[in-house]
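We close this part of the discussion by returning to an individual protein. The sequence in question and its structure tokens are set out directly beneath this paragraph:
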Amino acid sequence: MKIGGQAIIEGVLMMGKNVAIAVRNNNGEIVVEEIGKKTPSSLKLFKVPFLRGLISLFYSLYYGIYALDRSAEISSGQKMKKSETFWSIFLAVVLAVGLFLVLPVFLTSLLTFLRGNEFLFSLVEGLIRLGLFLLYVYIISLLKDVKRFFQYHGAEHMVIHAYESNEPLIDEKIRKYSTIHPRCGTNFVMIFLIFSIIFFSLLGWILHLNVFWKVISRVAFIPVIVGFSYEFLRISARNSKAMRFLAAPGLLLQKLTTAIPDDSQIEVAIAALKKAVGEENKIDHAKEHEGPEFFG
């Protein structure tokens, strides 16, 4: 069984036979909860190439947002208000659209020598978008709370590596594994950004759009790029050296988005994984599941 997951506040979300979270509360105890039974791979449509990327992204966002809210409640001991959740999501979407969609187009439009050359305009715009994203990740990685979040991200990857290698889930066995994982959502984001540069550069040869419609097109074609990016992620996660080479930018980016966890964080990740595979006292290593199902 292939396991997916992601870091949450003072904890880890894991997806296997079901979806589970483990979070350390303000008393130092680990709280483990099952938050869902339906996973992307349980749907027939998940077998459809390109469409399964959108399905996986939907479930990643759906469970991810809920798990972040729930982990905030458990770790702080305070109930989250629905209005706080709504405004947090709203501001995150506005920031993402403004910073990574609108701003790159606007900045590129200021370069007058690019006017009339749609291919070069889209290429430069894509590189600016990529640069802004890398700068954003680097800046937040310097924050203390984010560093701790990235440690849980590293713990998630190390525990999944150990599980998928049939290792006993004990600290000394898990410690030998890397915090880098080929199915990580960080890889997906990097692949998405690179594919978007190629896609919109080629689109620039066909369509000549003003700044407004350029922004609209960047949003409209997101599902297409998600589909292609996910299929590439599935292929690159296999052992092909050529594909691993092409996926190298995403693997390198994980050097920023993961960190070496402490023993208590690994303990939390183990608890989440055991709950996700449906048996807290016994781990089933059957590998009948195909491909990545969750961005972590």
The radius of gyration is 20 Å. Strands lie at 4-8, 11-15, 19-24, 30-36. The CA atoms of residues 16 and 210 lie 45 Å apart. The chain has eleven helices and four strands.
